[in-house]
Write a structure and sequence with these properties.
16% strand; alpha+beta; 2 domains; 11 strands; 12 helices
Length: 305
């Protein structure tokens, strides 16, 4: 995709901006100031204009894994953003959660909002696909068409966005505070919760997975139970992989793995970031079934494989 897709001439020229004008009322950004950025050098509407117009063909789709599709938004992308956030709030109400002070939302609203804005800014609109939001009792996922922009540079240091002009508008509307900080803001929301947000890229879509504040993996016993199942299948695992699979913090995942060592269910090799945990034989904890894996790994390492 051309990185300046939003500046390419729109295939639709019969556009109206009634919703955009209403949205901008009371903000520091005026439509007349914005109008020049909605046209190409020949005075024709560009794809940014199509995004912001009443005729915007892109959508947000909210899907419950229990109840199916709950909402498909229409209209200017800015109005759609507000509509989908309002709908999400209605299915993610404040509630009393054991271990917390006062009512909170099951899925943190700041993380959802930041993920929606991030999806808008980095979406590959040339694919003509919707931004899909899926949720169940444990995970809230925001799936945006298009893989990571510029080999993850936008994730690591925020130097560029796929849709720079749209990002600038969101910045001027004070909907985002600083371009390129979205991922860090999402991670900060989960700081000290014992859980972590996960980001995956399959090349065609970028997904942000937000764990529930009541996620079972927040419970120490549940973390161990899940890690036992994972180890029985994989036979070995490191803290980083365990953290990714559980969506729990590296500290919480490492603590759970050490607990399995104390139980005699697993044993560990190496130190620091290279530390690996292996499954012990369930019949005799003193003879690890992962031993052949270790020998094979050592042989490959010594042979340069």
């Amino acid at each position: 995709m051309d990185q300046r897709f939003e500046r390419e001439t729109s295939s639709v020229q019969e556009l109206s901006f009634d919703q955009l004008k209403m949205f901008l009322e009371g903000t520091a950004l005026k439509y007349n100031t914005l109008a020049s950025s909605l046209q190409d050098d020949d005075g024709l509407y560009n794809n940014l204009a199509l995004l912001l117009s009443d005729q915007c063909p892109w959508q947000f789709v909210l899907v419950s894994k229990h109840y199916g599709t709950l909402r498909i938004t229409q209209g200017s992308i800015l109005v759609q953003m507000m509509d989908i956030l309002e709908t999400i709030n209605s299915v993610n109400p404040l509630r009393i959660i054991p271990g917390t002070v006062g009512p909170i939302r099951k899925f943190p609203r700041p993380a959802i909002r930041e993920s929606i804005l991030n999806a808008m800014i980095h979406c590959d609109y040339s694919q003509m696909l919707p931004i899909v939001i899926e949720y169940d009792d444990e995970i809230f996922s925001i799936v945006s068409p298009g893989g990571s922009w510029l080999s993850d540079r936008w994730v690591c240091n925020g130097m560029e966005a796929r849709n720079e002009d749209l990002a600038t508008i969101l910045l001027e509307l004070d909907l985002i505070k600083l371009k390129g900080r979205g991922m860090f803001h999402i991670k900060d929301v989960y700081h000290r919760s014992g859980m972590v947000a996960a980001f995956t890229d399959n090349g065609s879509h970028f997904t942000v997975n937000l764990p529930s504040m009541t996620h079972p993996a927040r419970n120490k016993d549940e973390r161990r139970r899940r890690l036992k199942s994972i180890l029985e299948n994989k036979r070995r695992i490191d803290v980083r992989t365990a953290s990714r699979l559980l969506q729990s913090s590296p500290y919480a995942s490492g603590e759970a793995l050490e607990g399995l060592v104390d139980e005699g269910f697993a044993f560990s090799m190496l130190r620091g970031g290279n530390r690996m945990y292996y499954l012990c034989d369930t019949g005799d904890k003193h003879f690890p079934i992962g031993l052949n894996d270790i020998k094979k790994q050592d042989t490959e390492t010594s042979s340069g494989g």
